[in-house]
Design a protein that fits this description.
Number of strands: 18
Order of helices and strands: EEEHEEEHEEEEHHEHEHEHEHEHEHEHE
Strand content: 25-35%
Radius of gyration: 20 Å
Helix content: 25-40%
Distance between the termini: 22 Å
Number of helices: 11
Length: 361
C-alpha cells in the first residue's frame, strides 16, 4: 500500500516551502523506497524553489540524502531491504553512447523512478534531481541507491550524495590534481571546501582559497588551504600568481558559477593549467572572453558535472576515508535541523552562516 508521509514542498516560484502530506507509492520494477535518515540543505534546492532550474512545480525538495532501503520492486538485485545507502542523482544506464565508450560519468540516460510521488490530492510532484528527500520516505530508481558502511553517521554520509562529491570530484576526477600541484579554489562554501580537502588528499602542495568572506576563508584553512585571498580586498588573479611564482595555479576550481569569477579563474591559471567549473550558473548568464586568450593560453577548460563521479566507485571510497579519519566529512555538517526548519536553513545558507545544514529525521 502507498505510504503517506511528511515532506517539504515548493508549491510556487519564490514562495516559502511548506511541510505537507506526500504520498509515496509502493516500488515498481527497478524501484526502491528509502526511509530517509538525513538530507543536506543544498543551494540546488533553493534554486528549485526560486525557479532557477525549471518551472515544473510543485517540487519535492531535498536530494543530498542517506537512509535505509525499506522496500524494493521487481528486478532489483543491487540493493536489498535493510541496506544503508546514499542517494545519487546520476544513476548511469550502462548502455548509452557515453557508457559504451567507457565514460559512464557522462551518461546521457541516467535513471529515475518511473512512478510519481504526489500530494494528498493526487497532484504529481517533481522530485529535486530525481530524488525528493526532504521527506520521511522517498521513491527512487534502485540504481540511485549506493551502499555505504552503516558505521558512517547518516548526517555526514548524505553529503556524499551531492555537494561533497561535486567538490572533491572537481579537484580529483575532473581537475586530476596530483602531488606537487598548485590549486586555487574560488568560492569556499561546501563545494569549494570539498575541492580544497580533495586537493590536499591528492597531494597538492599549494592550495589557495579565494572568497569574499573572511569567515569562509578561516574555515577553508581548516580543510587544508595553505593560503587565502579575500577578493573584496585584493585582486585574486594577481594574488594567485604571486603565490605560484608568477605563473598561476596548475588547477583552478571555480565553485561560484558566475561570469566574473570564471574570468578570474581563467586568468589565474598557469598557461598549461586547467580551469574546472563546478559552480552552477543560472540560465541568463553569459561569458565573454577574448578568443585570442583562449587560444594563446592553452591548457584545458572543463566543466564538472557531479564531480565526474561514479557513485558506486566513489561514494564507498570517500566513506572509508572518512571513517579512517583521512577525509574530514563530518566537519562539513554545521548544524542539524528538523523537516520543519528548511526555510530557516535556506536563510542561514544565504547569510553564509553554515557550510551545510542537515535535516535529520
Amino acid at each position: 500500500m502507498p505510504h503517506t508521509v511528511k515532506g517539504v514542498v515548493a508549491l510556487s516560484k519564490g514562495a516559502p516551502v511548506e511541510l505537507v502530506d506526500v504520498v509515496v507509492p509502493d516500488p515498481g520494477p527497478f524501484e526502491a523506497v528509502v526511509d530517509v535518515q538525513a538530507c543536506g540543505v543544498c543551494h540546488t534546492d533553493l534554486h528549485y524553489r526560486e525557479g532557477g532550474i525549471s518551472d515544473d512545480y510543485p517540487f519535492l525538495l531535498g536530494h543530498e540524502a542517506a537512509g535505509v532501503v525499506s522496500a524494493v520492486g521487481e528486478a532489483v538485485t543491487d540493493v536489498a531491504v535493510g541496506d544503508h545507502v546514499v542517494l545519487n542523482w546520476r544513476a548511469v544506464c550502462g548502455s548509452c553512447r557515453a557508457c559504451r565508450r567507457g565514460r559512464p560519468w557522462y551518461c546521457f540516460a541516467t535513471h529515475n523512478a518511473a512512478q510519481k510521488m504526489t500530494l494528498a490530492d493526487g497532484t504529481p510532484l517533481s522530485p529535486a534531481l530525481g530524488i525528493g528527500a526532504f521527506a520521511e520516505k522517498t521513491l527512487v530508481h534502485a540504481g540511485q541507491c549506493t551502499r555505504v558502511d552503516p558505521a558512517l553517521p547518516a548526517a555526514a554520509a548524505g553529503l556524499l550524495g551531492c555537494g561533497i562529491m561535486a567538490g572533491f570530484g572537481a579537484a580529483v576526477n575532473t581537475g586530476a590534481v596530483t602531488r606537487g600541484d598548485s590549486v586555487a579554489v574560488i568560492g569556499c562554501g561546501g563545494v569549494g571546501d570539498a575541492a580544497i580537502a580533495g586537493a590536499v588528499l591528492a597531494g597538492a602542495t599549494t592550495v589557495i582559497a579565494v572568497d569574499v568572506d573572511d569567515r569562509k576563508l578561516e574555515v577553508a584553512e581548516r580543510f587544508g588551504a595553505t593560503h587565502t585571498i579575500n577578493s573584496r580586498q585584493s585582486d585574486p588573479v594577481e594574488g594567485v600568481r604571486a603565490l605560484t611564482g608568477g605563473n598561476g595555479a596548475d588547477v583552478v576550481v571555480e565553485a561560484v558559477g558566475r561570469p566574473e569569477t570564471y574570468r578570474q579563474a581563467f586568468y589565474a591559471r598557469d598557461l598549461a593549467g586547467t580551469v574546472v567549473l563546478v559552480g552552477v550558473p543560472t540560465p541568463e548568464m553569459e561569458l565573454t572572453l577574448p578568443l585570442l586568450d583562449v587560444f594563446g593560453r592553452g591548457g584545458a577548460l572543463k566543466s564538472s558535472w557531479y564531480g565526474d563521479c561514479l557513485p558506486e566507485r566513489d561514494f564507498p571510497v570517500l566513506a572509508a576515508l572518512a571513517l579512517q579519519g583521512r577525509f574530514p566529512l563530518q566537519d562539513f555538517v554545521s548544524e542539524t535541523v528538523g523537516l520543519g526548519d528548511v526555510e530557516e536553513a535556506f536563510a542561514a545558507m544565504g547569510r553564509g552562516d553554515v557550510l551545510r545544514s542537515v535535516v535529520v529525521l
